[in-house]
Amino acid sequence: MGRLCVICDKERAIIKRPKTSQQLCRECFYYVFETEIHNAIVDNKLFKKGDRVAIAASGGKDSTVLAHVMKLLNERYQYGLELFLLSIDEGITGYRDDSLETVKRNQQQYDLPLKIVSYSELYGWSMDQIVKEVGLKNNCTFCGVFRRQALDRGAVMLNVDHIVTGHNADDIAETVLMNILRGDIARLQRCTEICTTGDECIRRSKPFKYTYEKEIVMYAYFKKLDYFSTECIYSPNSYRGHARTFLKDLETIRPSAIIDIIHSGEAFEIKKEVKLPIQGVCKRCGYMSSNELCKACVLLEGLNRGLPKLGIGKTHRMRKIHGDMPQDTAIIPHFNNIKIDDNENNNVIIDESNKSKEKL
Ligand code: SF4
Ligand code: ZN
Ligand code: ZN
Protein backbone atom coordinates (compact mmCIF):
# COMPACT_ATOMS: atom_id res chain seq x y z
CA MET A 1 0.00 0.00 0.00
CA GLY A 2 1.34 3.36 -1.01
CA ARG A 3 1.32 6.57 0.92
CA LEU A 4 -1.93 7.89 2.41
CA CYS A 5 -3.57 11.17 1.41
CA VAL A 6 -2.35 13.97 3.69
CA ILE A 7 -5.85 15.44 4.01
CA CYS A 8 -8.17 12.51 4.74
CA ASP A 9 -5.50 10.08 5.93
CA LYS A 10 -7.67 7.24 4.65
CA GLU A 11 -7.36 6.89 0.90
CA ARG A 12 -4.22 6.13 -1.04
CA ALA A 13 -2.53 9.26 -2.39
CA ILE A 14 -2.40 9.15 -6.17
CA ILE A 15 -1.74 12.81 -6.94
CA LYS A 16 1.18 15.05 -6.10
CA ARG A 17 -0.38 18.47 -6.10
CA PRO A 18 1.69 20.76 -8.37
CA LYS A 19 1.01 23.90 -6.31
CA THR A 20 2.02 22.56 -2.90
CA SER A 21 3.61 19.15 -3.61
CA GLN A 22 1.08 17.57 -1.19
CA GLN A 23 0.23 13.91 -1.76
CA LEU A 24 -3.53 13.63 -2.16
CA CYS A 25 -6.25 11.18 -3.05
CA ARG A 26 -8.45 12.03 -5.99
CA GLU A 27 -11.48 13.23 -4.00
CA CYS A 28 -9.39 15.47 -1.74
CA PHE A 29 -7.70 16.97 -4.81
CA TYR A 30 -11.11 17.82 -6.26
CA TYR A 31 -12.13 19.29 -2.93
CA VAL A 32 -9.11 21.57 -2.47
CA PHE A 33 -9.15 22.61 -6.12
CA GLU A 34 -12.83 23.61 -6.04
CA THR A 35 -12.67 25.15 -2.56
CA GLU A 36 -9.75 27.43 -3.44
CA ILE A 37 -11.77 28.80 -6.35
CA HIS A 38 -14.81 29.21 -4.12
CA ASN A 39 -12.65 31.10 -1.61
CA ALA A 40 -11.30 33.40 -4.33
CA ILE A 41 -14.89 34.15 -5.38
CA VAL A 42 -16.14 34.78 -1.84
CA ASP A 43 -13.10 36.65 -0.50
CA ASN A 44 -13.23 39.06 -3.43
CA LYS A 45 -17.03 39.35 -3.44
CA LEU A 46 -17.08 38.66 -7.17
CA PHE A 47 -20.82 38.08 -7.47
CA LYS A 48 -24.08 38.89 -5.82
CA LYS A 49 -27.28 36.87 -5.82
CA GLY A 50 -29.24 37.17 -9.04
CA ASP A 51 -26.22 38.20 -11.17
CA ARG A 52 -26.32 37.12 -14.78
CA VAL A 53 -22.85 35.81 -15.57
CA ALA A 54 -21.37 34.90 -18.95
CA ILE A 55 -18.60 32.31 -18.97
CA ALA A 56 -16.20 33.08 -21.81
CA ALA A 57 -16.01 29.64 -23.44
CA SER A 58 -13.50 28.65 -26.08
CA GLY A 59 -13.74 24.89 -25.74
CA GLY A 60 -10.17 24.82 -24.34
CA LYS A 61 -9.22 23.28 -21.00
CA ASP A 62 -9.38 26.48 -18.93
CA SER A 63 -12.81 27.60 -20.00
CA THR A 64 -14.24 24.08 -19.96
CA VAL A 65 -13.06 23.56 -16.37
CA LEU A 66 -14.36 27.05 -15.57
CA ALA A 67 -17.83 26.21 -16.89
CA HIS A 68 -17.83 22.95 -14.96
CA VAL A 69 -16.64 24.52 -11.69
CA MET A 70 -18.88 27.61 -11.95
CA LYS A 71 -21.94 25.43 -12.39
CA LEU A 72 -20.88 23.14 -9.58
CA LEU A 73 -20.10 25.93 -7.08
CA ASN A 74 -23.22 27.87 -8.03
CA GLU A 75 -25.27 24.83 -7.02
CA ARG A 76 -23.16 23.71 -4.06
CA TYR A 77 -23.00 27.13 -2.38
CA GLN A 78 -26.20 28.59 -3.79
CA TYR A 79 -24.62 31.68 -5.34
CA GLY A 80 -27.93 32.30 -7.11
CA LEU A 81 -26.27 33.10 -10.45
CA GLU A 82 -27.78 32.76 -13.86
CA LEU A 83 -25.01 31.32 -16.03
CA PHE A 84 -24.46 31.59 -19.79
CA LEU A 85 -21.77 30.43 -22.18
CA LEU A 86 -20.37 33.12 -24.47
CA SER A 87 -18.09 32.12 -27.34
CA ILE A 88 -16.22 34.15 -29.88
CA ASP A 89 -15.84 32.82 -33.39
CA GLU A 90 -12.70 34.44 -34.77
CA GLY A 91 -13.20 32.69 -38.10
CA ILE A 92 -10.13 30.43 -38.06
CA THR A 93 -10.75 27.39 -40.23
CA GLY A 94 -9.37 24.16 -38.83
CA TYR A 95 -9.17 25.55 -35.31
CA ARG A 96 -12.07 27.59 -34.04
CA ASP A 97 -14.71 25.75 -36.03
CA ASP A 98 -13.61 22.52 -34.33
CA SER A 99 -13.31 24.03 -30.86
CA LEU A 100 -16.79 25.56 -31.19
CA GLU A 101 -18.12 22.05 -31.71
CA THR A 102 -16.69 21.26 -28.27
CA VAL A 103 -18.45 24.31 -26.81
CA LYS A 104 -21.72 23.14 -28.34
CA ARG A 105 -21.27 19.76 -26.65
CA ASN A 106 -20.47 21.58 -23.39
CA GLN A 107 -23.72 23.48 -23.78
CA GLN A 108 -25.56 20.16 -23.77
CA GLN A 109 -23.46 18.67 -20.98
CA TYR A 110 -23.88 21.65 -18.66
CA ASP A 111 -27.30 22.66 -19.90
CA LEU A 112 -26.41 26.35 -20.20
CA PRO A 113 -27.59 28.81 -22.85
CA LEU A 114 -24.90 29.58 -25.44
CA LYS A 115 -24.29 32.69 -27.52
CA ILE A 116 -21.67 32.74 -30.27
CA VAL A 117 -20.46 36.10 -31.62
CA SER A 118 -18.32 36.14 -34.74
CA TYR A 119 -15.66 38.57 -35.96
CA SER A 120 -17.31 38.47 -39.40
CA GLU A 121 -20.64 39.72 -38.06
CA LEU A 122 -19.04 42.38 -35.82
CA TYR A 123 -16.15 43.62 -37.92
CA GLY A 124 -16.84 42.29 -41.40
CA TRP A 125 -13.51 40.41 -41.31
CA SER A 126 -12.70 36.86 -40.19
CA MET A 127 -9.21 36.03 -38.87
CA ASP A 128 -8.63 33.90 -42.00
CA GLN A 129 -9.18 37.03 -44.10
CA ILE A 130 -7.12 39.23 -41.76
CA VAL A 131 -4.16 36.84 -41.90
CA LYS A 132 -4.34 36.91 -45.71
CA GLU A 133 -4.02 40.67 -45.48
CA VAL A 134 -1.52 41.17 -42.65
CA GLY A 135 0.45 37.90 -42.69
CA LEU A 136 1.50 35.99 -39.61
CA LYS A 137 3.33 38.75 -37.78
CA ASN A 138 0.76 41.02 -36.22
CA ASN A 139 -2.26 38.76 -36.49
CA CYS A 140 -2.53 38.23 -32.73
CA THR A 141 -2.67 42.01 -32.18
CA PHE A 142 -5.81 42.18 -34.32
CA CYS A 143 -7.22 39.05 -32.78
CA GLY A 144 -6.60 40.12 -29.17
CA VAL A 145 -8.07 43.61 -29.60
CA PHE A 146 -11.07 42.29 -31.51
CA ARG A 147 -11.70 39.50 -29.01
CA ARG A 148 -11.76 41.82 -26.03
CA GLN A 149 -14.43 44.00 -27.62
CA ALA A 150 -16.33 41.02 -29.01
CA LEU A 151 -16.68 39.60 -25.51
CA ASP A 152 -18.06 42.88 -24.20
CA ARG A 153 -20.46 43.18 -27.11
CA GLY A 154 -21.58 39.58 -26.71
CA ALA A 155 -22.15 40.25 -23.03
CA VAL A 156 -24.37 43.20 -23.92
CA MET A 157 -26.33 40.96 -26.27
CA LEU A 158 -26.83 38.49 -23.43
CA ASN A 159 -27.69 41.32 -21.06
CA VAL A 160 -25.31 39.97 -18.43
CA ASP A 161 -23.75 41.83 -15.50
CA HIS A 162 -20.49 40.01 -15.50
CA ILE A 163 -18.05 38.01 -17.67
CA VAL A 164 -15.80 35.37 -16.14
CA THR A 165 -12.73 34.23 -18.05
CA GLY A 166 -10.51 31.18 -17.63
CA HIS A 167 -7.26 33.13 -17.12
CA ASN A 168 -5.24 31.07 -14.66
CA ALA A 169 -2.35 31.88 -12.30
CA ASP A 170 0.24 31.01 -14.95
CA ASP A 171 -1.37 33.40 -17.47
CA ILE A 172 -1.42 36.21 -14.92
CA ALA A 173 2.19 35.63 -13.81
CA GLU A 174 3.24 35.63 -17.48
CA THR A 175 1.43 38.91 -18.04
CA VAL A 176 3.14 40.45 -15.00
CA LEU A 177 6.53 39.43 -16.43
CA MET A 178 5.64 40.76 -19.89
CA ASN A 179 4.44 44.08 -18.56
CA ILE A 180 7.61 44.48 -16.49
CA LEU A 181 9.78 43.67 -19.51
CA ARG A 182 7.84 46.13 -21.66
CA GLY A 183 7.71 48.78 -18.92
CA ASP A 184 3.95 49.03 -19.34
CA ILE A 185 3.03 50.54 -16.01
CA ALA A 186 -0.66 51.06 -16.69
CA ARG A 187 -1.18 47.41 -17.60
CA LEU A 188 1.07 46.20 -14.81
CA GLN A 189 -1.21 47.89 -12.35
CA ARG A 190 -4.36 46.35 -13.81
CA CYS A 191 -3.23 42.88 -14.78
CA THR A 192 -3.26 41.34 -11.31
CA GLU A 193 -6.73 42.58 -10.42
CA ILE A 194 -9.15 39.70 -10.02
CA CYS A 195 -12.03 41.87 -11.15
CA THR A 196 -11.94 44.87 -13.47
CA THR A 197 -14.70 47.23 -14.31
CA GLY A 198 -15.13 50.51 -16.15
CA ASP A 199 -18.00 53.00 -16.19
CA GLU A 200 -19.61 51.70 -19.33
CA CYS A 201 -18.18 48.26 -19.34
CA ILE A 202 -19.27 45.02 -17.88
CA ARG A 203 -17.45 43.57 -14.89
CA ARG A 204 -14.89 40.99 -15.83
CA SER A 205 -13.24 38.59 -13.49
CA LYS A 206 -10.83 35.72 -13.22
CA PRO A 207 -11.93 33.11 -10.68
CA PHE A 208 -8.79 31.05 -11.57
CA LYS A 209 -6.43 33.85 -10.55
CA TYR A 210 -4.72 31.56 -8.03
CA THR A 211 -5.30 28.28 -9.87
CA TYR A 212 -2.27 26.60 -11.45
CA GLU A 213 -2.50 25.54 -15.06
CA LYS A 214 -1.09 22.09 -14.22
CA GLU A 215 -3.91 21.56 -11.74
CA ILE A 216 -6.53 22.63 -14.28
CA VAL A 217 -5.14 20.03 -16.70
CA MET A 218 -5.16 17.40 -13.93
CA TYR A 219 -8.70 18.23 -12.92
CA ALA A 220 -9.95 18.08 -16.53
CA TYR A 221 -8.15 14.78 -17.01
CA PHE A 222 -9.44 13.04 -13.88
CA LYS A 223 -12.97 14.39 -14.33
CA LYS A 224 -12.83 13.32 -18.00
CA LEU A 225 -14.10 16.72 -19.15
CA ASP A 226 -14.69 17.21 -22.85
CA TYR A 227 -12.27 19.86 -24.10
CA PHE A 228 -10.33 20.81 -27.19
CA SER A 229 -6.56 20.91 -26.95
CA THR A 230 -5.23 21.92 -30.36
CA GLU A 231 -3.24 25.16 -30.67
CA CYS A 232 -4.36 27.96 -32.95
CA ILE A 233 -2.89 27.52 -36.44
CA TYR A 234 -1.87 31.20 -36.48
CA SER A 235 -0.13 31.14 -33.13
CA PRO A 236 3.34 32.68 -33.23
CA ASN A 237 2.93 34.83 -30.12
CA SER A 238 6.64 34.63 -29.43
CA TYR A 239 6.82 37.35 -26.80
CA ARG A 240 4.37 35.61 -24.51
CA GLY A 241 6.06 32.34 -25.48
CA HIS A 242 9.38 33.54 -24.02
CA ALA A 243 7.70 34.68 -20.80
CA ARG A 244 5.93 31.30 -20.62
CA THR A 245 9.12 29.28 -21.07
CA PHE A 246 10.87 31.37 -18.44
CA LEU A 247 7.96 30.93 -16.01
CA LYS A 248 7.87 27.15 -16.53
CA ASP A 249 11.60 27.00 -15.77
CA LEU A 250 11.05 28.96 -12.58
CA GLU A 251 8.14 26.69 -11.62
CA THR A 252 10.36 23.62 -12.03
CA ILE A 253 12.88 25.05 -9.59
CA ARG A 254 10.27 26.41 -7.18
CA PRO A 255 6.53 25.74 -7.66
CA SER A 256 5.56 28.79 -5.59
CA ALA A 257 7.24 31.08 -8.18
CA ILE A 258 3.92 31.54 -9.99
CA ILE A 259 2.04 32.80 -6.95
CA ASP A 260 5.10 34.80 -5.82
CA ILE A 261 5.17 36.69 -9.15
CA ILE A 262 1.43 37.45 -8.88
CA HIS A 263 1.95 38.76 -5.34
CA SER A 264 4.91 40.88 -6.53
CA GLY A 265 2.71 42.29 -9.30
CA GLU A 266 0.05 43.17 -6.73
CA ALA A 267 2.60 44.88 -4.52
CA PHE A 268 3.77 47.33 -7.19
CA GLU A 269 2.77 50.86 -6.42
CA ILE A 270 2.92 53.68 -8.88
CA LYS A 271 4.15 57.08 -7.73
CA LYS A 272 1.42 59.68 -7.78
CA GLU A 273 3.44 61.86 -10.18
CA VAL A 274 3.33 59.17 -12.90
CA LYS A 275 0.72 60.07 -15.48
CA LEU A 276 -1.54 57.20 -16.47
CA PRO A 277 -3.74 57.24 -19.56
CA ILE A 278 -7.16 58.75 -18.95
CA GLN A 279 -10.04 56.47 -19.86
CA GLY A 280 -12.61 57.99 -22.16
CA VAL A 281 -14.76 56.58 -24.92
CA CYS A 282 -14.09 56.00 -28.60
CA LYS A 283 -15.54 58.82 -30.70
CA ARG A 284 -16.65 56.39 -33.34
CA CYS A 285 -18.09 53.33 -31.62
CA GLY A 286 -18.46 54.33 -27.98
CA TYR A 287 -16.19 51.60 -26.59
CA MET A 288 -13.93 52.63 -23.72
CA SER A 289 -10.63 54.03 -24.93
CA SER A 290 -7.85 56.25 -23.71
CA ASN A 291 -7.49 57.70 -27.24
CA GLU A 292 -9.91 59.45 -29.53
CA LEU A 293 -10.54 56.19 -31.34
CA CYS A 294 -10.37 52.76 -29.76
CA LYS A 295 -7.78 50.30 -30.96
CA ALA A 296 -10.37 48.13 -32.75
CA CYS A 297 -11.64 51.08 -34.79
CA VAL A 298 -8.08 52.03 -35.77
CA LEU A 299 -7.22 48.46 -36.76
CA LEU A 300 -10.46 48.07 -38.67
CA GLU A 301 -9.87 51.32 -40.46
CA GLY A 302 -6.45 50.06 -41.54
CA LEU A 303 -7.94 46.84 -42.87
CA ASN A 304 -10.72 48.60 -44.73
CA ARG A 305 -8.32 51.13 -46.28
CA GLY A 306 -5.83 48.48 -47.33
CA LEU A 307 -3.29 49.83 -44.82
CA PRO A 308 -3.20 47.01 -42.29
CA LYS A 309 -0.13 48.42 -40.51
CA LEU A 310 -2.17 51.41 -39.39
CA GLY A 311 -2.71 51.01 -35.68
CA ILE A 312 0.19 48.63 -35.13
CA GLY A 313 2.57 50.29 -32.72
CA LYS A 314 1.91 53.77 -31.43
CA THR A 315 -1.40 55.12 -32.68
CA HIS A 316 -0.42 58.79 -32.82
CA ARG A 317 2.71 58.03 -34.83
CA MET A 318 0.79 56.06 -37.42
CA ARG A 319 -1.86 58.73 -37.71
CA LYS A 320 0.75 61.36 -38.38
CA ILE A 321 1.97 59.27 -41.29
CA HIS A 322 -1.40 58.43 -42.74
CA GLY A 323 -3.44 61.48 -41.88
CA ASP A 324 -6.69 61.66 -39.99
CA MET A 325 -9.31 58.97 -40.23
CA PRO A 326 -12.13 59.69 -42.63
CA GLN A 327 -15.49 59.69 -40.94
CA ASP A 328 -17.31 57.56 -43.48
CA THR A 329 -15.94 54.09 -42.70
CA ALA A 330 -17.91 51.18 -41.31
CA ILE A 331 -18.76 51.41 -37.65
CA ILE A 332 -18.55 48.42 -35.35
CA PRO A 333 -21.98 47.85 -33.82
CA HIS A 334 -22.02 49.97 -30.71
CA PHE A 335 -23.30 48.96 -27.33
CA ASN A 336 -26.42 51.01 -27.76
CA ASN A 337 -27.50 49.76 -31.14
CA ILE A 338 -26.61 46.11 -31.21
CA LYS A 339 -29.29 44.19 -33.02
CA ILE A 340 -29.69 40.56 -32.18
CA ASP A 341 -31.34 37.94 -34.24
CA ASP A 342 -33.04 35.26 -32.26
CA ASN A 343 -33.11 32.65 -34.95
CA GLU A 344 -30.45 30.50 -33.33
CA ASN A 345 -33.02 29.65 -30.70
CA ASN A 346 -30.42 29.65 -27.99
CA ASN A 347 -32.26 31.33 -25.15
CA VAL A 348 -30.68 34.69 -25.85
CA ILE A 349 -32.36 37.67 -24.34
CA ILE A 350 -32.95 40.50 -26.74
CA ASP A 351 -32.02 43.92 -25.55
CA GLU A 352 -31.10 46.81 -27.76
CA SER A 353 -29.61 48.98 -25.11
CA ASN A 354 -27.18 48.31 -22.36
CA LYS A 355 -28.68 51.24 -20.52
CA SER A 356 -31.79 49.25 -19.73
CA LYS A 357 -30.44 46.23 -17.99
CA GLU A 358 -33.54 45.11 -16.21
CA LYS A 359 -33.52 41.59 -14.88
CA LEU A 360 -35.90 39.31 -16.67
FE1 SF4 B 1 -6.04 34.78 -32.27
FE2 SF4 B 1 -3.36 34.69 -32.19
FE3 SF4 B 1 -4.83 33.42 -30.33
FE4 SF4 B 1 -4.79 32.51 -32.84
S1 SF4 B 1 -3.03 32.61 -31.41
S2 SF4 B 1 -6.61 32.75 -31.53
S3 SF4 B 1 -4.65 34.41 -34.00
S4 SF4 B 1 -4.70 35.63 -30.63
ZN1 ZN C 1 -7.99 12.24 0.72
ZN1 ZN D 1 -14.16 52.36 -31.49
From TrEMBL:
According to the entry, every stretch annotated as the tRNA(Ile)-lysidine/2-thiocytidine synthase N-terminal domain falls at: 53-231
Domain Cytoplasmic tRNA 2-thiolation protein 1 C-terminal: residue ranges? 281-310
**Source organism superkingdom:** Eukaryota
Q: Which GO terms describe its biological process?
A: protein urmylation; tRNA wobble position uridine thiolation
Q: Does the keyword RNA-binding apply?
A: yes
Q: Give its E.C. classification number.
A: 2.7.7.-
Q: Name one Pfam family in it.
A: ATP_bind_3
The entry assigns this protein to a family as follows: Belongs to the TtcA family. CTU1/NCS6/ATPBD3 subfamily.
Protein's job: Plays a central role in 2-thiolation of mcm(5)S(2)U at tRNA wobble positions of tRNA(Lys), tRNA(Glu) and tRNA(Gln). Directly binds tRNAs and probably acts by catalyzing adenylation of tRNAs, an intermediate required for 2-thiolation. It is unclear whether it acts as a sulfurtransferase that transfers sulfur from thiocarboxylated URM1 onto the uridine of tRNAs at wobble position. Prior mcm(5) tRNA modification by the elongator complex is required for 2-thiolation. May also be involved in protein urmylation.
Q: What is this protein called?
A: Cytoplasmic tRNA 2-thiolation protein 1
Native species: Rhizophagus clarus
Instruction: Please name the taxonomic classification of the source.
Output: Eukaryota, Fungi, Fungi incertae sedis, Mucoromycota, Glomeromycotina
